[in-house]
Specification:
Helix content is 37%, strand content 18%. The protein is α/β, with parallel strands linked by helices. The longest helix has 22 residues, at 365-386.
Length: 621
């Protein structure tokens, strides 16, 4: 029997295959690729652009303003869809492509699927050197696209049209793999994009994908259950993997049945509602006194769906050195950290199996009462911190205003500076899975661009809810152009722009380590000779957004109500104090490098203090 084929260019084959991939979510069949973001240049417009134009109804294409922002938007889209759908980002050869390296790193650290389709130099090399080509004198095969190798989970350069048949499905499989999930990169030489091949028609047949659920080994479950059932002071650390596995119900059921207190990582915020009696708060450097207090006393710690980043572990000082860890994680690399007893497998299946294996075990009542009392004290502290009449304007006060007025299903987005810490500590979760604090890479510029990507996803699921972006003036100045994107595409954002005059949280770190304020706040930068304030309101209006400036939390509340009622992106600007109003409690120790030798007594004192705390670090066991 003769195989039926269709002659297509490399670019056309990639696009047609993508358009025919589907995934089933809650009984509904959706296109796996939600579309893409593009900035066209000579390296991708003539061939890939031609193919995407033909598929514009199946794969909506969003025109970006900045390639890095496109990648951030794609990452936020995937996060909002709990890694079950992805978008692609395409850039031309040269600087357009290299602008995406940071986005790929963000997606890699956060284990998020994103497909990068980037122009490359000519496979024939006949016109070399070409516009924007990086020439390597010793290795002509090496180019700027090789920079993506360490920041992607799958990397390939397509040098012949037939390679698409193997490479594209492999890239998709990587992006959907629970353990290896991350960005995939395909380098597309400009000549190869247009070369044609007789592709099997079967390659373009519709396919429905399903996310693999890896069952844990029963012996690992039994070992973990034996360890946990002997605990007098057990604790669960719930990470972002709980949501990606859609295991919130299983987490809640296990915690309630066995009365085990739960603390959340930054990525795991919104696994439990703030009002759940076993939610003891966020843990770690930017956490809560309540979570850190019980972490210091816990004897067995069940870590679920977390990579145990330093902000979670307090650089490994948050736990008693004798505490035993159990790692429930689909990724072996994460499940075995710090000599954890591993339960390698899907979080939902792992929690179900542990729940059953624990039988009628329940944590001692006095331990649970102690944890709940700690949480009650922390709630009182948060209430004081966010109170509008308690001191000068601050991040915390703005957070409190929005928290009191937003819809439970509104999505919160932030990423860099002091806002991740302040939101993690002070935000009271109103709806499951509604908080996106990007703190894996903590990347400036993610805020607005990620908000746009999150809003695109939200419009597909909950169009009547809002995406609310918290951003400082430093990150806003770095990348704000997707305010214009949100207006152009009718994807409304509410942006809280909190101006503290520079990089105030790093200034705080400078001062806390004995250093003088230097080049972090604008006013403390010696080369600043003309400190002209930015008219952020006018700037936002120039991109088509509605905007206003407020002076007090009461004015912020009224402005937020107007923003909720508005029909397009709304930017609210408020100055906050760079020195006062920071959340004082909830901080675990964090290892930072400090000078061993300095002429400053304050720096030497800070170094000695930090080094003394190092004695509490676990050494990997």
């Amino acid at each position: 029997m003769t195989e039926r084929t269709v002659r297509l260019t490399t670019a056309q084959a990639i696009v047609r295959h993508l358009a025919n991939q589907f995934i089933e979510i809650d009984g509904e069949r959706l296109r796996l690729c939600g579309g893409g973001f593009a900035i066209f240049g000579h390296g991708n417009v003539t061939c890939l652009g031609e193919a995407l134009h033909a598929a514009r109804d199946a794969l909506p294409l969003y025109r970006g303003q900045n390639e890095q922002g496109m990648g951030f938007a794609a990452a936020a889209y995937a996060k909002a869809w709990l890694r079950r759908r992805f978008m692609f980002a395409t850039a031309s050869a040269g600087p357009g492509t290299s602008n995406l390296v940071t986005s790929a790193a963000l997606a890699h650290v956060n284990r998020l699927p994103m497909l990068l389709l980037c122009g490359d130099t000519y496979q024939t090399r006949l016109p070399d050197p070409v516009l924007q080509q990086i020439e390597n004198f010793q290795d002509p095969t090496l180019g700027v696209n090789d920079a993506f190798r360490p920041v992607t989970r799958y990397w390939d350069r397509i040098t012949h049209p037939a390679q698409v048949i193997q490479s594209l499905p492999a890239a998709i499989a990587t992006m959907l793999d629970p353990a290896d999930c991350g960005p995939a990169f395909l380098g597309l030489p400009q000549d190869v994009q247009g070369w044609a091949f007789d592709y099997p028609e079967a390659f373009f047949a519709p396919r429905v994908h399903r996310i693999r659920r890896q069952a844990p080994d029963p012996r690992e479950v039994a070992d973990a259950a034996a360890l946990l059932s002997g605990a007098q002071r057990p604790m669960i650390i719930a990470g972002g993997g709980v949501q990606y596995s859609r295991a919130v119900d299983e987490l809640t059921a296990l915690a309630e049945a066995h009365q085990i207190p739960v603390v959340e990582t930054i990525a795991g915020r919104a696994n439990l509602l703030a009002t759940h009696p076993l939610n003891i708060g966020p843990i770690g450097v930017t956490g809560s006194d309540s979570a850190n207090a019980i972490a210091a006393r816990a004897d067995v710690i069940l870590a679920v769906g977390t990579r145990l980043q330093d902000f979670t572990t307090g650089s490994w000082t948050a736990f008693d050195k004798s505490a035993r860890l159990i790692g429930v994680n689909v990724a072996r690399h994460d499940a075995i950290k710090h000599m954890s007893a591993p339960v390698v497998g899907d979080a939902r299946l792992g929690l179900q199996a542990l729940h059953e294996a624990l039988g009628d075990y329940a944590a001692p009542g006095e331990w649970v009462a102690e944890a709940k009392a700690e949480r009650a004290r922390w709630d009182e502290e948060v209430a004081r911190t966010v109170a509008p009449d308690n001191g000068p304007n601050s991040y915390a006060k703005a957070i409190g205003v929005v928290n009191a007025l937003c819809d439970p299903r509104d999505r919160i987005v932030t990423a860099s500076g002091g806002l991740p810490a302040e939101i993690t500590a002070n935000w009271r979760t109103l709806g499951i899975g509604t908080v996106d604090v990007e703190f894996g890479y903590s990347c400036m510029g993610y805020e607005v661009a990620g908000g746009w990507g999150a809003r695109i996803a939200q419009a597909e699921r909950e169009p009547d809810k809002d995406t609310i972006v918290f951003v400082g003036d430093g990150a806003y100045l770095l990348m704000n152009s997707d305010i214009y994107s949100s207006v152009l595409t009718d994807r409304k954002l509410i942006v809280l722009l909190l101006d503290n005059g520079g990089f105030a949280v790093i200034n705080k770190l400078q001062n806390n380590t004995g250093n003088e304020s230097f080049a972090t706040l604008i006013k403390d930068t010696p080369t600043v000779t003309n400190p002209v304030p930015v008219d952020f309101e006018a700037h936002a209006r120039s991109m088509g957004a509605l905007a206003e400036t407020v002076s007090t939390p009461a004015e912020l509340a009224e402005a937020f109500r107007r923003a909720k009622a508005a029909d397009r992106t709304y930017v609210i600007v408020m100055q906050v104090d760079p020195y006062e109003g920071w959340t004082e409690g909830g901080h675990a120790w964090w290892e930072v490098g400090t000078p061993e030798v300095s002429e400053s007594p304050r720096v030497r004192e800070a170094h000695a203090r930090i080094e003394a705390e190092r004695a509490r670090q676990r050494k990997g066991v």
